[in-house]
């Protein structure tokens, strides 16, 4: 390394604010308030995470929200042995699709189960909330096996 | 009805774990070879279309640099898709339908080695519910694999057999990165990387490129003794949220396969972008490919996975089977997104 090495620091910024729209705004505001919202589709199903459009037909959905969870059932899972720096948990955990009570679709989130042996398809899990919530999907720190809550 | 378009030239780079060359540097010989094999002059090419990913390069408009490997003076007509080169081929196929030009160059390229793919790919996901969780392709594929295992649609042994067969097929493929003669039972003794996936269920991390030359019917006949005709091509997309669809099915593959005419006659070989072992079985099911169809004679993506070129390479490998190995009818498949969210299917035939 040359002695006259010069360092420069760059900050990449997006100097604007944006709205999340009628559905994600409600969903993430709900997260901040410690509640998980789904949305009713035209065929009567409850979608969580909520979407602005019916994923099957593309038609716009009314802002008809329903509180779901915080408990639910693991429908499939993957055991992450070496988490990346972008993962929500810094030790081995499961990614899972969780069908929350009252919802008809699966939410992707982390399950902090301690070990792979504690994981099973069909197991019940529940949300572990952060104390300080900011309106973000990681306001739920992770889901945990219901018995271990 | 669509006009007949044929593949008249193709070339690939080897698949490297880490190339010291820049993307334009390793594209240059690949594009030159494809053009040479087609027997055309650069000035005869009426349209150029590329597929690559600026997120992999870590720089906006990085794809413009790749044009240095094409030669863009005097000015050329070109386009780019932020997708696998297979979708660039689709755009070129559409462009050739206009009938005012007769030859197109398509290429796909990617360097995965400079970054950490598991940290780059979450950026292709929903930015509010999935990207912030760092939802990476391997974890998402593991969710899909588990869903298939739970549904009894595959076993871990079948996954190991697919991996072992792919590695064996890749022996002798000069572009392959992972080859070998493995015993599936031995593979099953390896630890999980992301359960239920083991190392052999995952594609390698690769750098590499592929290029294909397309021509309209008259031009193709004048250039090649054995043009490879694109008889059908279609691409479809499923719901983005992985929890909103049945992961043990791929309706988009089924529909694209039907629209491309896969089932209209016997298929000899298929080159499938089964980037994870279990996906091969799912794709075969949705495309109606039985045991009599040879799958991924090149070794497929489990042997070489140059992201953004790997789908176009399926076209090159399927075309090679027809042009060089006397096969009659082949299927080429490319995919994009997580858990086979988006699928492109084409049927290729000799005369």
- Oligomeric nature of the chains: heterodimer
Distance between the termini of chain A: 52 Å
Largest interface: A-B, 38 and 36 residues
Mean pLDDT rating of chain B: 96
Distance between the termini of chain B: 19 Å
Strand content of chain A: 25-35%
Count of DSSP strands of chain A: 8
Unreliable stretches of chain A, pLDDT < 50, 5 or more residues? none
Question: Which terms would index this structure?
Answer:
heterodimer, A: 149 residues, mainly beta, five-stranded antiparallel beta sheet, 1 helix, globular, B: 351 residues, alpha/beta, Peroxisomal Thiolase, Chain A, domain 1, ten-stranded mixed beta sheet, 12 helices, 33% helix
What does this structure look like?
The complex is a heterodimer of chains A (149) and B (351). Chain A has 149 residues and is mainly beta. Chain A has one domain (21-148). Helix content of chain A is 8%, strand content 32%. Chain A has one helix at 21-32; strands at residues 36-40, 46-47, 65-68, 71-80, 93-100, 106-111, 124-129, 140-145. The longest helix of chain A is centred in the first third of the chain and has 12 residues, at 21-32. In chain B, the strands form two sheets. A ten-stranded mixed beta sheet of chain B has the order 3-2-4-7-1-8-12-11-9-10. Chain B has a two-stranded antiparallel ribbon with strand order 5-6. Chain B is globular. The two termini of chain B are 19 Å apart. The chains are: A mainly beta (149), B alpha/beta (351). Strand 4 of chain A pairs antiparallel with strand 5 (192-195) of chain B, so a sheet runs across the interface.
